[in-house]
Amino acid sequence: MKKINNEVIILALVFLLGAAADSALASTAFGTYELSAAMADAQYYAGSGDHAITISGQDYLFTGADGTLIEYDDGTAMFSGYAHSIDDAGSGYMVTLSLSGRTAIAPPDSPKRELMSGAYSDNGGPVDTGTWYYYTGFSGTFDGIGALAGTTLIITQRGPAFQIGFGANNKNLNFGASAWFWAEDAQGNSSRGDINIDMAVVPIPAALQLMVSGLFALGLATRRPS
After folding, report:
1. How far apart are CA 18 and CA 216, in angstroms?
2. 96 torsion bin: left (phi>0), alpha (psi -120 to 50), beta (else)
3. DSSP letter string over the chain?
4. The pLDDT of residue 65
5. Which residue, among 89, 199, 182, has the nearest Cα to 141 in the 3D structure?
6. Helix 206-221 / helix 2-26 crossing angle, nearest 10 deg
7. What is the full per-residue pLDDT of the chain (226 aa) written as tens digits?
8. CA 139 to CA 193: how far, in whole Å?
9. CA of 205: how far to CAs of 67, 212, 214, in Å?
């Protein structure tokens, strides 16, 4: 009886591992980034405004792993997280933005360059906008938390495309992004907003890579003809 029970357990584990392998194969995500405020580098940027998101002069930050951007191989991405007020960590917005139309070809009005002219490669600087890529459309919502609870802002693109690359955050030379949007409340009032973020790659731990490889191999093994 013990032998039968062990065989049943083994078969169940193999089935679950095979299903997990199928799930891993079905995933289309290929890049995950942790987001933080793009801090102004006085050597390359003449202004100020150390924020991740700003709306009508009010600045918001991502702390730790509060903000993420996940890219998918179908040309879309998801930007999400909790952006808290620079003045009150307990108040802010739950950010949910859907990006689409990934392209390496600069769309109309892009790239948008806000660093000093000497920062760009056509003037001898280190930033080559030719290496940037773009999402031609984005939209979503900001849902209020804390003192902003009950507020929902509808976000739509304003002007240039969502741009990503080294120096693309328009604040420093780091790998990051910037974008411009309209934020409309329930009363129809619209405000201007900007996104200026650094993006740090979130690596897949080596142990997880090995586990996924093992799941994949076991999943294939369960599908071999007898």
Report:
1. 7
2. beta
3. -HHHHHHHHHHHHHHHHHHHHHHHHH--EEEEEEEEEB---TTT-SS---BSEEETTEEEE--TTSEEEEEETTS-EEEEEEEEESS-TT-EEEEEEEEEEEESS--TT-S---S-GGGBGGGT-SB-GGG-EEEEEEEEEEEEEGGGTT-EEEEEE-SS-EEEEETTTSSSSSEEEEEEEEEE-TT--EEEEEEEEEEEE-PPPHHHHHHHHHHHHHHHHTTS--
4. 79
5. 182
6. 110
7. 444 455 544 444 444 444 444 444 444 888 999 999 999 999 999 988 789 999 999 999 998 778 999 999 999 999 999 999 999 999 999 999 999 999 999 999 999 999 999 999 999 999 999 999 999 999 999 999 999 999 999 999 999 999 999 999 999 999 999 999 999 999 999 999 999 999 999 986 644 554 444 444 445 444 545 4
8. 13
9. 19, 11, 14
Tokens of 49: 């405004």
For tokens 């996940």, the residue is: 70
